Structures are given as structure tokens and as C-alpha cells.
Amino acid sequence: MLPNNREATLRCRGFLLTRVPRGTISSFGMRAPSLHPSASTQNSDQAAVLYPASRGACSKFFSLLLALLLFGCAASAQSRRKVIIDQDARGPATTDQQAILMFLQSPKVETLGITIVSGDMWRDEEVAHTLRMLELTGHTDIPVVPGAIYPLINRMEAIDRWEALYGKVHYEGAWNGHKPGLTSNMRNKYHPPAEVPDLIEGNPTLKPAAEDAAHFIIRMVHQYPHQVTIYAGGPLTNLAQALSIDPQVADLAQELVLMGGAMAAVYPEAPPLELRREFNFWWDPESVHMTLNAPWHKITATTVDISIKTRMTKAMLAEIAKIQTPAAQYVAQYGDKEYMEYMWDELAVAGWLDPSIITKQTRLYMDIDISHTANYGNVLLWDNTDRPGLDEQLVDLPEDLDSPKFYKLFMELLAQPSTTQAAAH
Amino acid sequence: MPIGNKFDRAGIFNGKKSLDLAVLLLMLFVFNSAAAAQNPSAAPGSRKVIIDQDASGPGGSDMQAILTVVQSPATDVLGITVVTGDAWLAEEVQHTLRLMEIIGRTDIPVVPGAAFPLVNSKEYIARWETMHGKIVYQGAWNFAPGNAVHGPWEIPPMPEGAPTTKPADEDAAHFLIRMVHKYPHEVTIYEGGPMTNLALAQAIDPQFASLAKELVLMGSSLNPQTDDPEFTMTPRREFNLWMDPEASSRVLHSDWARVVVTTVDISIKTHMTKELIAKIAAGKTPAAQYTAKYSQPGYLWDELAAAAWLDPSIITKTHKLYMDVSTDHGASYGDTLVWSNDTRPHLGEREVEVQDDLDQEKFYREFVDLIIRPTPSAHAAK
């Protein structure tokens, strides 16, 4: 070690802690060991990085002190996986909030922020539900960043006209029940986007961030290049906006994890009518097209096909009710007891947290139909032999899962204490 | 003429009463036709049928389907109307004529139909593919086993020999119209190819569909369970409906008394195995020898539609839905569209009976029996 390295090297939980200039390391754990610490000496803007331990050079006392100081904050923040949660955040509970909670409850994750997009509900109502969820589960340090209220092109009124030509759409999220018909019997009454009805779980006092989702996403991937996973559990409007403003976003992110799309799902209870239509993708097709034609390093999409192999059960809710954490109590109290939802978004999160939950997957080129036709908003798939060769991207598509492992992870996460997760940005 | 329910059009029945009456009539009708269909000992030659077929040959699914219908003693085949599909019209007509010569049924008229789809074309699809991806199977446009892909009027050498008989001096659409007027509500239209001929008949005479007894078709795809990427990448694309989407849509908006659909989903549960071919080869009749000589392992697409019409008990599961074909010039051009009664747009789309599952052994047995039995002799002159 160089004599003028004032921090020296400190033994900390089996690793050596030292400092190197921020920005010289793009992927911790991959390139760090090859960097010599001497590179850091002239730089005052330094970030902590962990090296594999070599022979100890510091006292046991110092080591203990450092461990106490840094464990659970800086050191573990550096080793945790950074994620931005982009979500249409219906609440209270249900698949959207439960997916968010899985990230927040994981000790292996650093959530940079939750960006909200209209989808299952309108954005403002979703922001309120999310803030309230953070209050109830003890995660008030996580920024909630409002994103898009409307899809880029698609409109409720346009879909009304579309339906007259091509048939009724069963589920329209925030648009549900705006006219008599199929979607009017859902439990949420329609209201305009700016209206936020009083929340049954209580209104939040916490406030959303002053920044918009697209700029937050751009800022974060520049701050942590190649380190941020973008998870999107709703329509992709925020991502499309970010990509439009700054096309570097796709390259600067580590990977994209989606719940969206449908391939050829086999529902046991019904003949297949709309094989390739899935709500998240359908709500804003143009955004999906822009997102799926961007050069991400990796895209994983949890489709309807595998999501419908999961289901929240009354027995699970009863088990959750026995867990004495704020997160579990929130889910137990507000979790869906009527519809027994498929665990759409939770599965996408779980597959990212523990890839061994996915037991089978395929890899295909995926896009969405943005032609204003009967197929508007439906998934398109190709293999390498028949693709058009435009900008379509390869997407990993989980096909089957280890169900017991998935449910176990979900329960274990809800049982975790609500530790502070985010670093200051 | 507006497209719609014929009871509504008649203007006699109103409101719920008309619905009840219509349902009652329909039930009686379906009951009667089902009872007749399930009676294999129906009077010989009593089931009038026109075979509308894209008739690539020699042998293979198209010719085997024609044989299935012609070989049944229960049928009265009024004619075979030919349409471009798996191969071009001109060569298909020759193969069909030759087959009728081989089995000694030159009394059945072979009637040339449409050489080209109404709107779709090989050249258009080539442009479409640059936007939306390659289409593996395009029938006459990209597929000619044993020969180079060729133009519509070229007839490559025929391994089974060239026919000496001639096609009918009438076009398919007019033949179809003439027959349903001559035998109102008695003629089953069996369709094993693109529906250009039927759409033309319906366009010329809007009474056409309502005067037929029923439409039995091989076409459409819903959610085929297979690993074959031809079907999994685009599960709603099926060749017959895709080749002429506008014709398909027109036919599926016509007021047929009944439409029965054999989809890709069920067709791919059938296989022309080497075993089946060997069984047929043991038959001594010209039909059996012809079939065995030119048959290849593959799915029994059209044969299933034909055999299930002859004996509906082959089908063990069906469901009803509303069906159309996308005529939009986007990525889904030519794809199957389906709705339930509560999602459909009410633009004159038709309820169809979709076959979901079958008794495979029964199907294979009856198919083989039909192919190897002696060919029925000609019925009364038409």
C-alpha cells in the first residue's frame, strides 16, 4: 500500500476496504480486483470499494469499529444490487404494491427510487397508495417519483372507437368502468386522472419527489453506469420518455426486467380469445415498441404465460397474517381476498432476485404491433430465422418456475425487518 | 346487401320473440342435421357436397381429402371447385382431373376457380415480410416440392401422368351458385383451401351462403400446442385463411346456416405415419395405390375436416366462438380473430363451431377404410 493512502486498508467483514476514484469502476466485483489502489491517491472524489481480503493490516479494534459503522450502510450499499422500480402502483396491496415490497424487503437490494406510471390506476392515485405503503411498512426513505399520466399515443377515447371495430377489451386498468360494458364491474369506480379518492388504508403525509420519472431514470443510470437494473411492472411510458430524451439510457442501465406481454398462454378455464394481448403492453403500445427496440444489455420479460402459473391463495394470506412485520401485516390486511390474483409482477421480481426460481426459459425476438389495426398492442415474436432484422431485440422469456421456491421467497421477504435501504442521492 | 342474420333481414320477427324462434329453428335444424350426419348408413349418395379445394398433387393432404369425400358411399359429390393455394390453379386442375381418371370418377366435374386471391399477392407479401418478418409457408408462392417454384400458368411434368379429360366449362363461383339454387339447403360446402371461390360466389349472389346447407372448412389457428416455430411464433396465422384474408373475412361474414371449423390446433394432433401409409399400400384399389404411392408423412389437415363431416363422432370436443380474419394491412394481416359473444363487435361476424379434440384411432381407422374401399360408382346425372 502507498504511504500517503490516508485511509490505509481496513479489514472489514472479510474484505479489504479501500478507495478508488468514482467512475473508474463500472461493475463492482468484475473489474475492481484488477485495479490497483494507487490509482486513487490523487482523487478527492472517492467511492468505497471492497477488495477480496489479503493479509490483515489493521487492528481488530479498528476492524470492529468499521464493521459497526459501515455494515448496513455504505459497505452493504455498495454490494447491494441497484434497482429502479417503475410501476403502475395500484393499491392498497395487490400485485403492484407487493412487487414493490419484495424489492424493499430484500437485504440484497438498494432501491434508488420508485417511478410511477398510470396503468392499473391513474398515476396520482398510485403515487398516494405507494407513499402510504411506504409509511405503513417503514420504508419512508425511498423516493417516489411521479411519471406519465397518459400513454404516449393511446387514449381511452380512441380505444372506445377501436372496440366498436374490433371488439371489447376485458381489462383497461385506470380506464375501467368509464363506460357501461365489460369492465364496469371491477371493484374500482372510474374517476378522472387528477382525482384521488380517500385511501382506505389512510391518506399519506409523505410527499413525492419533485423530479419527474424520466429525468430521475436518466440521472440514476448516469450516476451509476451499468449498475442499475430497471424493473418495469407496468406500462413502459416512463422508459420510452427517458429513452427519447437520452438514448444512452438503455446502454447505461445494467438490464431491463419486465412484466409484460403474452405468447401462447393456456388458461385452464377459458378458450383462448386474445392470445397476444397483455394489459401492461396494450395500454401504451408505442412506448413498448420504443423500449423493446432499444439496445439494452439484457431484457427479461415475465409474460402472461408464466404469470398464470402463480396464484395468491387464501391459505397464503392466512400464513402472511401470522408474520409480525409491518410489510406482512400490510399485505395481510389489504391483499386481494376476492379475486385471488395471479402474482404477475411478484414473479418478475422473484426471477430477478433469485434466477433459480425460473426452471425453463426461451429466448426470442419480441416487439409489439403499433399498427392501428385489430392487432394494436399485441405481442409479436420471431426467432432468428424469420425476424425482419429491424431493431427488434432478443428477450429472455421465462416459461416455467419452481413454485414452492417462489412462494417461499415471497413469504421470507415479507418476514424481513424493514431496514433502511436507500443511500442518499 | 347488408350482412346479418337472415331472420332479422326477413323483417318478420321482432325482439325477443324472434330470438326465441330463431333459436328454436336453429336447434331443430342442428338436431336434424346432426342426426343425419351421425348415421353412417344414410341413404347412399344422399349427402350432397361441393369440394372446394386447393388441389396440389399428386397425393398429399389435398388429394387425400378429395378422396375421403369421394370414396364415401354416403356422398353425392356435385363437383370439385379448384382454387390457388398450396399450388397454382392450373396445375391443381390437372392433378385433380388425373385423380378422377385414376379412380374412375370422371363424372365428377372439376371446375376451375380463382387463380389469384382477391387482394393479396406474392409481390405484396414480399414487401410485407421486410417489415414484419418471414412467412415460412406461402403455398404456390414459395413451395413446389420436386419442382422449382414457378409461375401460375406453368404445369410441371406430372409423375402420375397427364389427364386426357378436361375441366368444366364453367367457373367455380357460378357453379357454386347454380348448385345451391338447384338444391337449396341441401348442399354442404366443404372448403380445404383459401376461400376466394366462396367469396366470389357470395359477392355475385348474396343468397349463396344462406342457400347452402352448411360450410365445413379447414382453416384458422387459435393456440396450437406444439414446438414447431411455424405455429408458435405466429399462433394466429394459418395458410388457407392467410392467403386470401379479404375472401376469408367475406365468407366469415356470410349468413351460413352452420359453419364447422377444423383449426391448426386440432389438425396437428393427426399424423400421416409410415404405418398408416403401409396400411393404405396394402389396399388393392386404384385409390389406395395412388394414395400410398404419393403420400408423405405429415399432418392430415384437410382429411380431418372431411372425415369429421362424414362422421362427426370422430370429434370429441368442440366449442363455439365468433371468428373473422384480420384484413388490416399490419403485422396481423390474415391472422385469425376470435371473440366470445360478450366481446364481439357485432359487425356481422359469424358464430362457428371449432373442433378441439378428436378420437385419433377412430379417425385413422375410418380414413384408411375410406381410402382402400372400392370407389363408389357414379350417381344419377347432375
Account of the 3D structure:
The complex is a heterodimer of chains A (425) and B (382). In chain A, the strands form three sheets. Chain A has a six-stranded parallel β-sheet with strand order 6-5-4-7-8-9, with helices on both faces. Chain A has a three-stranded antiparallel β-sheet with strand order 1-2-3. Residues 1-58 and 65-75 of chain A have low confidence and may be disordered. Chain A is of the alpha/beta class and 425 residues long. The longest helix of chain A has 15 residues, at 123-137. Chain A has helices spanning 60-70, 74-79, 94-105, 123-137, 156-166, 213-223, 237-245, 249-252, 279-283, 285-292, 304-307, 314-321, 326-334, 344-353, 403-414, and strands spanning 10-12, 15-21, 46-52, 81-87, 109-116, 144-146, 228-232, 255-259, 299-302, 358-368, 379-382, 393-401. Helices cover 39% and strands 14% of the residues of chain B. In chain B, strands 3-2-1-4-5-6-9-7-8 form a nine-stranded mixed β-sheet, with helices on both faces. The A-B interface holds A 163-170, 182, 263-264, 266, 271-273, 275-276, 364, 369, 371-376, 378, 380-383, 385-388, 390 and B 129-136, 222-223, 225, 229, 232-236, 319, 321, 326, 328-332, 335, 337-340, 342-345, 347, 354.
Brief write-up:
The complex is a heterodimer of chains A (425) and B (382). Chain A has 425 residues and is an alpha/beta fold.
Helical percentage of chain A = 25-40%
Largest interface: A-B, 35 and 36 residues
Q: How many strands in all of chain B?
A: 9
Shape assignment of chain A: globular
Q: How many helical stretches of chain B?
A: 16
This entry's quaternary arrangement is heterodimer
What structural category do the secondary elements of chain B indicate? alpha/beta
CA-atom Rg of chain B in angstroms: 20 Å
Order of helices and strands of chain A: EEEHHEHEHEHHEHHEHHEHHHHEEEH
Biggest beta sheet attributes of chain A: 6 strands, parallel
Helix/strand-derived category of chain A reads alpha/beta
